[in-house]
Amino acid sequence: MPTILAAFFEFSSPALWMSVAGLVLLVIGLVAAKNDFAQARGLDRIVALTNLCFAIPLAVFGAEHFSLGSSMIGLVPPYMPVRLFWIYFVGAALIIASLSIATRIQVRWSGLLFGIMMFLFVAMIHLPGAIKSGDRIIWTIVVRETSFGSGGLVLAGIAWGRKGNRLIAVGRVLIAIAAIFFGVQHFRHPLGVPGVPLQKQMPAWIPARSVIDYLTGAFLIVGGVCFLLNRKTRVAAAYLGTWILLLVLGYYGPMLIGALADPSTATKLEGLNYFADTLLFGATILSLADAGRTGVGP
How far is CA 37 from CA 30, 33, 80, 131, 288, in A? Predict the structure, then answer.
């Protein structure tokens, strides 16, 4: 008991609020998705959780903006006025969007605005740095953020019904490019973390590390080609999205628990961000399957 209490009081404030935000959205999203989940069969039960999986990371990131505040100001371009305001504004926008998407209320606007915001981040923050440095990690972040924005477009397109087919088509192509890009990166760097291939390496205790990366890379490339050609998109997205979620539960979940148990705040935040990033990417893939499930998309 003393050890547990000590760990609790040592828990950093940013990590605490990010975790609380994610858990609250988990409960809200489960309540909102219970009917769809109960009516679905097979892999469609996983697809029915798309909005839930999409909303949780947004809440986590929103809480991160409020918890870290001025320490994130370096992310705001120096030419922007009142830079601290934008940190909190984005945090509030992310939390509102997470509630909207989880409850499926006005997703046509929250998904669309989230997508536009992510594209603005790419254009204003990440893409200039990637072009200037040519660094693989920064280019991966460019592709990652673009895919997240594309997922928002797809969710908005689903909410708009047949009027949203163009949004879904644009999102599908951009998600396809991201999947193929990430798949190639898995083959080039077969010991990196699976899903979104950033700098972090898989720990040595994980068995068959390269096999996991090669499998993930192959699934991403095959899925990306299906999305790009618009062939078997629903099936490919359902299987690929499910695989990413399995990675979230089987790999990133234990990694998150280990990170939260670490006394370092930086380690806690890294674990939360990797978990949320990969969960959001899995939800982005599943959004294409959800478009097919609802009869709106391909």
Answer: 9, 6, 44, 43, 17
Distance from C-alpha of 52 to C-alpha of 278, rounded to nearest angstrom: 14
Give tens-digit pLDDT for 278-298. Answer: 999 999 999 999 997 666 555
Asked if residues 226 and 177 have their Cβ atoms less than 8 Å apart, the reply is no
Neighbours of 271 (CB within 10 A): 22
Separation of alpha carbons 29 and 298, rounded Å: 25
CA gap 62, 59 in Å, rounded: 5
Output the pLDDT for position 199. Answer: 87
Nearest 5°: the CA angle 266, 54, 235 is 125
Contact partners, residue 226, CB within 8 Å, separation at least 6: 176, 232, 233, 235, 236, 237
Residue appearing with tokens 């072009």? 131
Contacts for 26 with CB less than 8 Å, ≥ 6 apart: 52, 56
Cβ 277 vs Cβ 140: under 8 Å: no
CA distance 194 to 289: 21
Which structure tokens are listed for 102?
């989880």
Summarize pLDDT for 60-99 with one digit per residue, the tens.
Answer: 999 999 999 889 998 898 899 999 999 999 999 999 999 9
135: left (phi over 0), alpha (psi -120 to 50) or beta: beta
Residue 29 tokens read as: 């999203």
